[in-house]
């Protein structure tokens, strides 16, 4: 389960247009990455999975993203690469949400719905229940 994942840590992507302006400045993201990586080579595929030349051996993935997240394009690209390599992928997009929406808890309707979607996808993956078509 990948929750609004950072999949290419070579550089901090620019933020998308965000209607509510809730975005961590690029300098804050880069500072967090430096602290997290502690000098580790950012081009290693185990650090930046988008750089893995052959994702075919990766496990099935549930990828949850937020609509207004600078990391969403990376996650979408990763999902496409996994599918092309024959890896099962379930994508969930938190429409209207920002990075970090899981921390908003159940007090807000849309984050709670996204959390329920993620939970249902995990349940289906663990029980072998097939995906139901999602309403348009």
UniProtKB/TrEMBL annotation:
<protein>
    <submittedName>
        <fullName>Alpha/beta hydrolase</fullName>
    </submittedName>
</protein>
<dbReference type="Pfam" id="PF07859">
    <property type="entry name" value="Abhydrolase_3"/>
</dbReference>
<feature type="region of interest" description="Disordered">
    <location>
        <begin position="7"/>
        <end position="27"/>
    </location>
</feature>
<feature type="compositionally biased region" description="Low complexity">
    <location>
        <begin position="49"/>
        <end position="58"/>
    </location>
</feature>
<keyword id="KW-0378">Hydrolase</keyword>
<dbReference type="GO" id="GO:0016787">
    <property type="term" value="F:hydrolase activity"/>
</dbReference>
<dbReference type="InterPro" id="IPR029058">
    <property type="entry name" value="AB_hydrolase_fold"/>
</dbReference>
<feature type="region of interest" description="Disordered">
    <location>
        <begin position="39"/>
        <end position="58"/>
    </location>
</feature>
<dbReference type="InterPro" id="IPR013094">
    <property type="entry name" value="AB_hydrolase_3"/>
</dbReference>
<feature type="domain" description="Alpha/beta hydrolase fold-3">
    <location>
        <begin position="1"/>
        <end position="102"/>
    </location>
</feature>
